[in-house]
Amino acid sequence: MSLMAQAPMLLADGATALKTAEGTATTLGVFSSEVLGTAVLLLLGAGVCAAVTLPKSAARNNEWLLIAFGWAMAVFAAVYVSAPSGAHLNPAVTIGLFVAGNDFAPGVAPTVGNMFVYFAGEFLGAFIGAWLAYLAYKKLFDEAEPGSTLGVFSTGPAVRSYGWNVVTEAIATFVLVGFVVASGLTPSGLGPLGVSLVVLAIGISLGTPTGYAINPARDLAPRVAHALMPIKGKGSSNWAYAWVPVVGPIIGGVLAALIVPAMLAI
């Protein structure tokens, strides 16, 4: 009997490669869920940025409120499609839950090994989502003004001041991860809506100084994708700033995980 034929016999009744017999996600299930969810997040999020940036787009120059609502709805959709993994979609959330000692998802313990599975899924998904957004807008990218496309995929500051840019990203991410740690990121009910409304609030109120990455994968993986895309006259991927949307959200996530449970006694 071949190994392929034997494989189903090795799984418990009702189990698959993606879930256990109890219905919780396996390691592969967690990875796949985070890849899919983060890809949807970046496809829709980068998509709304492309819509307001690129020439011949009907949404061009509608700017900040449309971007804020677009990203919030991207989070809403992404949380639902990545429910099996708890829909982290964000290494800062994963780190925050790890520091707080919360399960990553039902039946998924907050271990170092599992944390890196989440990181891998989040970064790969963000990379794929950025490419899908590029493909969806390919003909509009062909007519983009030189040096105007990085903002579709990654963030940048209104005023470059690395220390203060880190502070802004840390504060904004503190709000997001604090909400997740306090409320739980649920795959049903008000969980997805709650997270998307928090992201909307962050975008409207705290987003303009740095573009509110609040997510290392959301910024770094699409920045790498931008560097590889065959966009005519795309210009720099601004690597000098690339560390800020990674370090700031991690700091904010860790602080939220330490402070919020202590203050709420949870």
Q: Can you give a write-up of this model?
A:
With 266 residues, the protein is mostly helical. Helix content is 63%, strand content 0%. The longest helix is centred in the first third of the chain and has 27 residues, at 27-53.
List the helices and strands and how they pair.
Layout: H1 3-10, H2 27-53, H3 64-81, H4 91-100, H5 112-136, H6 138-141, H7 150-153, H8 162-183, H9 191-206, H10 216-228, H11 244-264
Helix pairs in contact: 2-3, 2-5, 3-9, 4-5, 4-8, 4-11, 5-10, 8-9, 8-11, 10-11
Q: Any descriptors?
A:
266 residues; 11 helices; globular; disordered N terminus; mainly alpha
What is the tally of beta strands? 0
Shape: globular
What portion of the residues fall into strands of 2 or more residues? Answer: under 5%
Specify the oligomeric state.
single chain
Mean pLDDT: 91
User: Percent helix among the residues?
Assistant: 55-70%
The DSSP helix count reads 11
The low-confidence parts are 1-10
Radius of gyration: 19 Å
| SS class | mainly alpha
Taking the sheet with the most strands, its summary is: none
- Tell me the span between the first and last alpha carbons: 52 Å
Order of helices and strands: HHHHHHHHHHH
Offer a quick outline of the entry.
By secondary structure, the chain is an all-alpha fold.
